[in-house]
Amino acid sequence: MQPHTPTPANIQPSRREFLKKAGILTGGILALGLPLPLRQASSALAAAPPSDSVRYALDLGGQIAGPIISLDSGFTSGQVVEGRLGQSLSSKKHLATIVPEDVFLECRNNMTKDFYLWIQQALGEQAPKRSGGILTMSMGNQLLDRQMFTDAFITEVTFPALDRTSTIQASIGLKLKPRQWSYQSGGSQIAFPTGVNLGGWLSSHFRVGISGLESACAHIVKVDSLVWKQSLSMAPDRLSFTSGPIQTPNLVVTLPRTQAGPFTEWFKQFVINGKSSDSDERSGSLEFLAPDQQTVLFKLNFEHLGIFRMSPITLSPTNATPLVKVEMYCETLRLTEFPSPGPAQTPLTPAMVLGVYRHNPVQNAWHEGSITQEGATLRWTNKAGATWRLVPDLANQRLLAEGPDNPYAQYGSKEFKLIMENGFIKGFAFGGGTYLKQ
Prior knowledge:
The chain is mostly beta strands. Helix content is about 10%, strand content about 45%.
């Protein structure tokens, strides 16, 4: 049945009909959820069921830097002091020092440029401090609270372990040490970049290069996780930090024993024969690649690499090829390339559009649906069961809905106009309504 609004002019609208019309005014005359047949009004006007799920986003300097996929922090804690109370056998307890806790967060390659610049500066020994916060939101983008941090330093950066046979999505881990935490309540609606990984980022897509060892590097099958650390200590006045030593991780790679000849020769000269001066050290790079195996998402540069250990890996039923692990120390690690979100640098693909979208606010079953792949085209299906075909026109950042199966084509609503923010798909506009990507 085609959606319609057969409201007789001579009937005074009920409170429910009045609320329905108010929803039309705020959500757009031709929004996906409106209009609906009057016999559906009772069930359609019911709000979407509440969800206990939450998600997090990072704020840097008042701007949302992107989604956080995992979070570990207590934010602020108090040290408990215990003592005797007179002759009582019970203990008297009270809070003493308030301690701002470190926070460890994990993100993918869909953050803003400012986020990666912060990491780049930290690895470049600039020890930059930033203020911002951790936003906690419902799955419907309702802000629950903000844990705001002041003068936070990056004390740890974790780059993912890599494996040619893996299908795991890669991510970057960050440990932050703030000088202070503060709390702000929520209540507002938040829109932030979600769900676009700029071409994808799998731990199986990488390329290693070490000067003079390029032929052997082409056969590397694994790279151990790299954890960079910067120690900090708080000054007695608790108003500032003092920078300490940097711990640069070793570069540890695995490759077939039959292809390790160049590494073996370097080990022989560097370790056995003692030719281990600065001039005998090497430079190298690690590139994290997009699925096309050509586009570089991130690039790390290593300076003063020195080989110090080679060890065979025990054969097993799942590892029938003789492998060898090569360990190299590194003096400096630098992040030299990172994603620069934006349509000009990263063309949209149909895969980036897929997902669940919700109208703000959700007033009925037509206000929530999903875009799925259907051959060379896409398909929109809402919770009311209505569905129609979408033809991607991504060069113009839109999805065409011109077919007869679109019940709103007769009203002139024939496209989903994608809403972009910092290179991410924030949602789409259709028929006067806005639908945010979940």
